[in-house]
Request: fold
Amino acid sequence: MTLDTVKHASDTPDVEQPWAELGLKRDEYDRIREILGRRPTGAELAMYSVMWSEHCSYKSSKVHLKQFGEKAPESDALLVGIGENAGVVDVGQGYAVTFKVESHNHPSYIEPYQGAATGIGGIVRDILAMGARPVAVMDPLRFGAPDHPDTKRVLPGVVAGIGGYGNCLGLPNIGGEVVFDPCYQGNPLVNALCVGVMRHEDIHLAKASGTGNKVVLYGARTGGDGIGGVSVLASETFDETGPAKRPAVQVGDPFQEKLLIECTLEIFKEKLVVGIQDLGGAGLSCATSELASAGSGGMRVDLDTVPLRDSTLSPEEILMSESQERMCAIVEPDKVDRFLEICEKWDVIATVIGEVTDGDRLEIYWHGEQIVDVPPRTVAHEGPVYHRPYARPEWQDALQADDANKLPRPESGEELREQVLRLVGSPNQASKAWITDQYDRYVLGNTVLAQPEDSGMIRIDEETGLGVAVATDGNGRYAKLDPYTGAQLALAESYRNVATTGAKPLAVTDCLNFGSPEDPGAMWQFAEACRGLADACQVLGTPVTGGNVSLYNQTGDTAIHPTPVVGVLGVIDDVNRRTPMAFSEEGQMIYLLGDTREELGGSAWSQVIHDHLGGMPPKVDLEREKLLAEILISASRDGMIDAAHDLSDGGLIQALTESCLKGGKGARLIVPDGLDAFVFLFSESAGRAIVSVPRSEELRFTDMCGVRGLPATRIGVVDGDAIEVQGRFSIPLTELREAHESTIPALLSDARA
Amino acid sequence: MTTRIGVVTFPGSLDDVDARRAVRLAGGEPVALWHGDKNLHQVDAVVLPGGFSYGDYLRCGAIARFSPVMETVIEQARAGMPVLGICNGFQVLCESHLLPGALTRNDHLHFVCRDQRLRVENTATAWTGDYAEGEEITVPLKNGEGGYVADERTLDELEAEGRVVFRYLDVNPNGSRRDIAGICNEAGNVVGLMPHPEHAVEALTGPTTDGLGFFTSVLKKLVATS
Amino acid sequence: MARVVVDVMLKPEILDPQGQAVQRALPRLGYQGITDVRQGKRFELELEGPVDDAALARVRQLAETFLANTVIEDFTVRVEEDEEVTTA
Amino acid sequence: MARVVVDVMLKPEILDPQGQAVQRALPRLGYQGITDVRQGKRFELELEGPVDDAALARVRQLAETFLANTVIEDFTVRVEEDEEVTTA
Ligand SMILES: Nc1ncnc2c1ncn2[C@@H]1O[C@H](COP(=O)(O)OP(=O)(O)O)[C@@H](O)[C@H]1O
Ligand SMILES: [Mg+2]
Reply:
């Protein structure tokens, strides 16, 4: 086959090109021809097709994501906002923190272990590329029905992959989510979050400037894995019976990544790079075009110098390859030697593959012949933008009218008791220890809080005790009932989780998991969720710093529940002041903060007891969330509370059960005046938390709540070895523990590791 | 003069920083040792930390055993220098034949991270002098291949000579023979165990501070013998 | 009783970190002349009945659906033979 | 270029949890008549030169000191042959 050079392309304008097979639309292909003034070469076509895929270009979502910038609240904390590999937040004392959540949904369905493992690998490199040392990971997960045979294939593989990669990298896993719902059956969601820490002056950006500076590719050799993975895996619906476009799955090598991390940090320390970019989706196509596009000049790359694992790869394949564990750095010529030396120390292969030019083109050569000559911005940043039609689905009204508050309720104490046990033992509410015990939470020795706490907390500075807390939340059931409110509830819960542990929420990252953007109903859900999240961020004062969109999560016409997953990062001046969730002191008073209304739409109770989804989700009151957060933070700082736990799905009884089991202490409760026992126990009203208050602090605490106008109701006392709701029922902790802790092991015990 | 305790970093070591912190909190001077450097830089004792040296792809510890630093560590260990192998370090010690037996895939096949109760069975080693005989401690355990195996004769020998230093209590988390969590060599200067004492040295970040005793023990021992 | 062996190896185009780790270590151990190492899995199955075509077909199916992940792995099924060189 | 295969299996007296897990899963998958499953490792080494006795002796030594841990594992070294049944 002759090499399709730029010259050859100019000379043969009429050659048929497989643009459709590469996922391009006719008008997109025409636009490429217009940009170049000729037909693209094969290599150019490969680059454009992968970079203009939904996954890389955000072509359907862009117009909605814009709001996160436009409505962003003023924040002194934001050092780097949306648009970079990850946002960067100032946490004081000269430290900056970067964090981001990303999806690896489709690959994890096809090959659960490697899909999930490389999901962790990818997000960690994003964080590393900002100049930060990765310090923790989290993993929000969604699976199909718990008893479905395919869940037994997907879940253990995903969990082993996340653990296998993260544990081997030496990053503590400090939290996440596990949710089961039949809607995720063919479309599990595997989202991965990473947090990194650096000094302000160490922030690095992905741009190539300085004519004559060298482009260095370092890390693993490039192989044939994941070729077209991005466009095929992330953008198209996965269909087992479809055309045999079997994707080459990427295999991760966490050891190589560990070396890459240590090597890169040493390179940063010696200030050897001008710009840096990780190689993720779209591999070299993405890294070179993004670096060049963000920089001041052009770039020339000699593609034949790229170290290969498979010598038969064509230049197009090298450009598309998604081999893992690679990075691309821009280095001043006189620093190249030292750069290579450090790589050698860490046994990391590093190669100069090109340089920054004073032109404005990205030029790629193959054995001296030019095969790419493009304006980099048109590849990386000026891809197509779609204003997809969207419309509220016809079924939405009927769904909302199907009010969960009308479902039959338990009447007797005996019935209440039985439903409590069913709730806390249901797969979504049950202990996830079977999963999280496969993750190392201790490594690095700075984990102050980890699962099952409300948020994970990491110490940043051993001397001062400065730390950060991160939580992730999302409730697809709420979002299905009302995507605008659902997205806000996800944010509110995550924000509340951070504040519950005593940290001040500062910034947001999000992973928006939705169905096909070509379906106006799914597109409406997406638009509404974005609008809801942007509006709520504005009120809470927490800007969105970055995130990820995953579309096409559907099988045939059936989409997943719209699932915005929201991560919130908070800061705490002294981690010694953190508030854990466990009730551990007998005799302490239990207070319920916030208002409890009759809100059962989308609730865990409606799902577990009635297999029902309908009505409206709980109301959002963001001012109340702010007040609650302020109280929880003050109370932690001033030592007024010993434990706190936020209320979310499952309501009060779920939270109380968790706090009691964690501390190994029981509780005696009295149903507050004016509340029905059922509503008290099961309602999922937002903006609430329970706290345990030492008697010596009770007055001070209730005064504070009173003065600031936060309802605080004394609901009971930490006592005994049962949860007793006076006059209604009592359940020994042993029985609760059995219900809560045996469910997941029983479901998965016969699954293969 | 403070006592210098070396902590080896292999490519893929993960708990080296924690081990150095533990040495520091115990009052010693941590010294970072590099796998490619044979020189032990005048340390008085060595810790082989946890992690996945060289990715642990072949067998845990199998490649690390052949690193330059191990040549000297093996030599010094035979000459009596205190050496502690934690988790991956324990695996390296077994692969190096400084300790008998081997560590195999957990019987339940999963990586497991939990707070583990142990009984200290031997307080005569270089690393356990500060514990009471039979003392029960809780430290984190985290491994995928922590099942201790050896043939019956070796196991009997270990028992007879009091070289089972730690035993798992409550649950055997990985299928180890005879609930063995850690052992020592005949001289008692080389100790290996799967659980992680270096993760239990601060109340804030560990389940307990029960692990500090390893490091204070060796410091005392070294001062006494110097 | 007969033994059937299923060998499962990563497809050639798939990265094999395990094999690479071994290969990288060889020079240090003093081994030259080994140009590539791949590491895979070997399953030894003891079959109750005769190893006829039907039995082998079933083992092949087992390998395809369970022992190997054919997205990334190839497999081979064969009846155990005597080895040329054996050491224990 | 020639291929030498090293098979490494746990010694019979050592518990093989991986093999057992496979075996336990078989009935659920509808497979009867498999009485035992053992899982081990297979290494494929590509040798540069001829596979003569000297070369094999070196591979055996490599297997003994490195590829297998003879405290718990047995190994077999052989020159690759054609398989009877192959599927990919
Ligand atoms: N996949 C997971 N990985 C790590 N931690 C998890 C995972 N799933 C759940 N967790 C942790 O378990 C705890 C309970 O989860 P969840 O009930 O979703 O918390 P909440 O409702 O407070 O957000 C949290 O600490 C959460 O971080
Ligand atoms: Mg919570």
Notes: Confidence is low (pLDDT under 50) at residues 229-247 of chain A. The pocket of adenosine-5'-diphosphate (ligand 1) is lined by residues A 139, 141, 173, 175-178, 432, 435-436, 451-454, 473, 497, 646, 648 (CB under 6 Å). The two ends of chain A are 45 Å apart (CA to CA).
